[in-house]
Amino acid sequence: LDGKFFSFIGEGQLGSPRGVAISNDNMLLVADEGGHCIYAFTLDGEYVGKFGSYGSGSVQFVSPYDITVDLYGFILVADTGNKRVQIFDKHHNYIHQFGGSDVLGSCNGLTVSSTGNIYVTDCDNEEIQMFSR
């Protein structure tokens, strides 16, 4: 591990990239806070597509801040402005959501354990919340 820079990805396409994750099919997924969407690139940096738009419905985001992929390939997005986590399959199809303002504050980070539990940072409430799979 030498940490030498060798390339840019998404230059001129991304608004405010925040979280990144590698999907189980080796796609680079980027939570773009400013664009209110998720971008997908190959690991070589080729643009593949994006999903999501501004709003509060399914497959809509307000400032998505982080993204992770679980062991089964499901994509989890910290939808910060909507105070929820949205879950998608590997084809970016909406599966489920949880949270909401009665449960989560501003969720800025998330990860999934090897047992499938979901850990979400909650900046408003200054805590990390744990959710079962």
Structure overview:
The protein is an all-beta fold and 133 residues long. It is built from no helices and 13 strands. The protein has a four-stranded antiparallel β-sheet with strand order 1-2-3-4, with no helix packed on it. The protein is globular. It starts with 16 loop residues before the first strand and ends with a strand. The mean pLDDT is 94.
Keywords summarizing the entry:
133 residues, mainly beta, four-stranded antiparallel beta sheet, 13 strands, 0% helix
SSE order and pairing:
Layout: E1 17-22, E2 27-32, E3 37-42, E4 47-51, E5 53-54, E6 60-61, E7 64-69, E8 75-79, E9 84-88, E10 94-99, E11 107-112, E12 118-122, E13 127-131
Parallel strand pairs: 5-6
Antiparallel strand pairs: 1-2, 2-3, 3-4, 7-8, 8-9, 9-10, 11-12, 12-13
Main sheet: strands, sense, barrel: 4 strands, antiparallel
Which percent band covers the strand fraction?
over 45%
Shape: globular
Structural class: mainly beta
- Order of helices and strands, N to C? EEEEEEEEEEEEE
Biggest sheet strand order reads 1-2-3-4
**Intertermini distance:** 34 Å
Radius of gyration computed on alpha carbons: 14 Å
Counting H and I runs of at least 4 residues, what is the number of helices? 0
Number of strands: 13
Helix content: under 10%
Parts with pLDDT < 50 across at least 5 consecutive residues: none
pLDDT averaged over residues? 94
